[in-house]
Write a structure and sequence with these properties.
58 residues
């Protein structure tokens, strides 16, 4: 699904603190979300590019 996404240099990566926080939230949640994508801009991009999959009822 993500073969077309560009490979980014490590100097352009997002701060991992946001994902670490999201991982902790998922682990501690009684009913964790099916998908967790960070940063928010990446979630918006994933939703656009995988619209049919995001709309599936799980």
């Amino acid at each position: 699904m993500v073969e077309h996404w560009p490979v980014r240099e490590l100097t352009h990566q997002h701060d991992p603190a946001e994902m670490i926080e999201a991982i902790i939230e998922v682990i501690e949640a009684e009913q964790p979300p099916y998908r967790t994508v960070r940063p928010a801009a990446a979630e918006e991009m994933a939703r656009r590019e995988q619209l049919a999959e995001w709309e599936l009822i799980v």
